[in-house]
């Protein structure tokens, strides 16, 4: 799939988001609670508005699904999925591990994904059928011979229900839990694609949280799926797994299956 024009647009979207986000980082920002109680900032809103404007100018027939402004129906079977600041909590705490997430879905499946960190200037790009790049250079996930050697990450325990938390801890117990990482949102998936982490396990994710991550992880040789091992698409629930080494999938699912996570 040749997506040269779309890749170029994604880069312009990321630059537009950076221009809105950078001046507001580590400033005194008012934030309000959204319906799901996560903080919204002016930076979030302005970044998404800037990205939507560019997409509408270039691909008016495409749909747009954004975290802040909802869904604009399209006519092309293609949808751009935007999360202007994934990790608003990190942004508000002055921690540069949030990112702008940009994805393109064709018939419900992610074919292009970008993770862009506006402050550090780090950018992962994944495109179906192409190797994932980090700031222009190819990256690959690392081999993980045993689950007991795996470094696992998740954004935080409070994002799991009680039952989901039990499943995560059952999995984490089988990994090298001294190396377990808490916090990080989408940044963890970039680190996994670059070979620094082995597993990310999360729940409660929405389409705008995971769509961009799939091409990035898979183009680097990793695997993304739900907790049943099924591929992720527009209709997926929020229980998400990323593995740097797909050979460990069976071990991971086995570690999780002793627990009911519904």
TrEMBL record:
Gene3D superfamilies: 3.40.190.80, Fructose-1,6-Bisphosphatase, subunit A, domain 1 (3.30.540.10). Its cofactor is Mg(2+). It comes from the Bacteria. InterPro entries: Inositol_monoP_superfamily (IPR051090), Inositol_monophosphatase-like (IPR000760). Keywords: Hydrolase, Magnesium, Metal-binding. Pfam families: Inositol_P. PANTHER family: 3'(2'),5'-BISPHOSPHATE NUCLEOTIDASE (PTHR43200:SF6), PHOSPHATASE (PTHR43200). Belongs to the inositol monophosphatase superfamily. This is Inositol monophosphatase family protein. It comes from Aurantiacibacter flavus.
């Amino acid at each position: 799939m040749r997506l040269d024009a779309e890749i170029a647009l994604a880069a312009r979207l990321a630059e537009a988001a950076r221009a809105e986000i950078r001046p507001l980082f580590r400033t005194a920002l008012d934030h309000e609670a959204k319906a799901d109680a996560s903080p919204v900032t002016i930076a979030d809103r302005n970044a998404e508005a800037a990205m939507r404007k560019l997409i509408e100018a270039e691909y008016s027939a495409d749909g747009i699904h954004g975290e802040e402004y909802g869904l604009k129906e399209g006519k092309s079977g293609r949808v751009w999925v935007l999360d202007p600041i994934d990790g608003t909590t990190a942004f508000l705490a002055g921690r540069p591990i949030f990112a702008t997430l940009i994805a393109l879905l064709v018939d419900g499946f992610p074919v292009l994904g970008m993770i862009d960190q506006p402050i550090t200037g780090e950018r992962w790009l994944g495109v179906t059928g192409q190797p994932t790049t980090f700031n222009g250079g190819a990256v690959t996930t690392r081999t993980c011979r045993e689950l007991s050697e795996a470094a696992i990450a998740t954004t935080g325990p409070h994002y799991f229900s009680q039952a989901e938390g039990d499943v995560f801890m059952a999995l984490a117990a089988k990994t090298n839990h001294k190396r377990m990482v808490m916090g990080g949102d989408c940044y963890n998936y970039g680190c996994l694609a670059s070979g620094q982490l082995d597993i990310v396990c999360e729940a409660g994710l929405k389409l705008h949280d995971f769509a961009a991550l799939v091409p990035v992880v898979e183009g680097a040789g990793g695997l993304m799926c739900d907790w049943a091992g099924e591929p992720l698409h527009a209709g997926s629930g929020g229980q998400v797994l990323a593995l740097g080494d797909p050979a460990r999938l069976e071990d991971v699912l086995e570690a999780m299956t002793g627990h009911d996570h519904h």
